[in-house]
Design brief:
The chain has 111 residues and is α+β, with helices and mostly antiparallel strands. It contains three helices and six strands; from the N terminus they run E-E-E-H-E-E-E-H-H. The structure holds zinc ion (2 copies). Residues 44, 46, 48-49, 83, 85 line the site of one zinc ion. One zinc ion is lined by residues 31, 33, 96, 98, 100-101.
Length: 111
């Protein structure tokens, strides 16, 4: 096996809170992402939220209570309102809205 990174299975190197309203991810391939908590909650991929929440989000629904990596392939968020969100690394990486990712020419158009 080689150590070439598979872009379809990005790995999180560092996961940390950025202030009160965002989290930061350093990926193993050197990429850096910042995710506002509100976006992460609105895009929650669980069966109840289905990746899309419209309208007002109560403050407790955007407040982080627990943040953890789940092995090498996912990230868990526990919210102050009791909701739980699990993002696979691939889902999380696809949400990155940095200039590089948004401008990626070969990136498939979604949503
Ligand atoms: Zn959800
Ligand atoms: Zn990016």
């Amino acid at each position: 096996m080689t150590t070439v990174l598979n872009p379809a299975r990005p790995k999180i190197k560092v996961l940390n809170e950025v202030g009160r309203y965002a989290i930061g991810v350093q990926w193993a391939d050197g990429h850096d992402s910042i995710y506002p908590l509100e976006n992460l909650r609105r895009r929650c991929p669980c069966v109840a939220c289905r990746g899309h929440i419209d309208g007002e989000l109560p403050p407790a629904s955007q407040r982080l209570k627990h943040l953890a990596r789940m092995g090498d392939s996912a990230m868990f968020i526990g919210w102050a309102d009791g909701h739980e969100t699990l993002y696979t690394n691939a889902q999380l990486r696809a949400l990155c809205r940095c200039a590089h990712c948004v401008a990626e020419p070969e990136r498939p158009i979604t949503g």
